[in-house]
Amino acid sequence: MSHTAQALKAVNPVAEARPMQWPDAEFEAVFLEHYSRIVGVLLRLLGERTRAEELANDVFWKLYRTPSVGEVDGRVGGWLYRTATNLGIDALRARARRRKYEDAAARTQEGTAAASPLDDMVRAEQRRRVREVLAVIRPGQAQVLILRASGFSYKQLADVLELKPGGIGTLLSRAQAEFRKIYMELHGKEEEL
Amino acid sequence: MNCPSDGTLQARLDGELEAGEMEELNQHVASCSRCRNRLEMMQAQAERVQGALATLDPSGQTTDAPRALARFRTKMDEELEPKRTWFGKLFAPRLRPAWGVLALVCAVAVLLSVAPARTFAERILAMLRVKKITVVSVYPTSTETRTDQRTAKMLSQLISDNVVVTMDAGKPQPQPSAAAASKLAGFDVRTIGELGTPQKILVNGEAAFQMTLNRDRMQAILQEAGRSDIQLPSSIDGAMVAVHIPRTVLSAYGNCPERMAHHGPPPQEQPGGEANQPDAADNCVFMVQAPSPTVSVPPNLNISQVAEAALELAGMSPSEAHSFCQTVDWSSTLVVPVPGNVSSYQTVNVDGVTGTLISLRSDRNRYSLLWVKNGIIYSLNGHGDPNQALNLAASLTD
Question: In chain A, where are the structural domains located?
Answer without folding.
Answer: 21-192
